[in-house]
Hints:
Layout: H1 4-27, H2 29-39, E1 46-47, E2 60-69, E3 76-79, E4 83-87, E5 92-99, E6 106-115, E7 123-128, E8 134-136, E9 141-150, E10 165-175, H3 179-209
Parallel strand pairs: 1-7, 2-10
Antiparallel strand pairs: 2-4, 3-5, 5-9, 6-8, 6-10, 7-9
Helix pairs in contact: 1-2
Amino acid sequence: MARPGSNRRIGLALFAVVPVMTALSFAAVPAYSWFCRVTGFGGTTGVSVAAPPAEKLGRLVTVSFDASTAPGMSWEFRPMQRSMTLRLGETGLAFYEAYNPTDRPLAGQAGFNVVPFSVGSYFEKIACFCFEMQVLQPGERVEMPVSFFVDPSMVDDREARDVNDITLSYTMYPADLPEADAASEQAGNDADDDARFAAAQAARRPTIEQ
């Protein structure tokens, strides 16, 4: 039987983890994603370093797709399909669409997880737009792929084997522009400022000459 003091320390430690992980999720998306990949926290998926297994089970699962944007992200972001049904071990290919409706380049970094959490470690990504930062130019619209499979070994896990429906969710976070893009944006802003100044001077000239 656990001692009251021990339970209290465990409770305080768990309580402290929540605000730390919440802060990491907003302040440092790459660090948060790394933590989740290592620990499996929050249903984080795996990243496959090998081809999908040759064995494909007759068991079917339905994967649904979800998307959202974090506060401060001006992109429009959505899945291009609601769901797909595939066999365990079968490779799936899905697409997400992102659109930058603003008049300036914007960078984004996707965070992701899987629900139910118990199948996160069996959901293996082969390739994904979420592996690296994405930069969209003003008015640019892109389709971004994610290739994946659900590991057949899921059927050997008593907490995951009865799952038939899986939801893959992405949240797109704002990110700092790479230096080259930031410099290009600044040059464009300077050119716009010069053009506005020249136009203002031209508009004032007739008044001064009178």
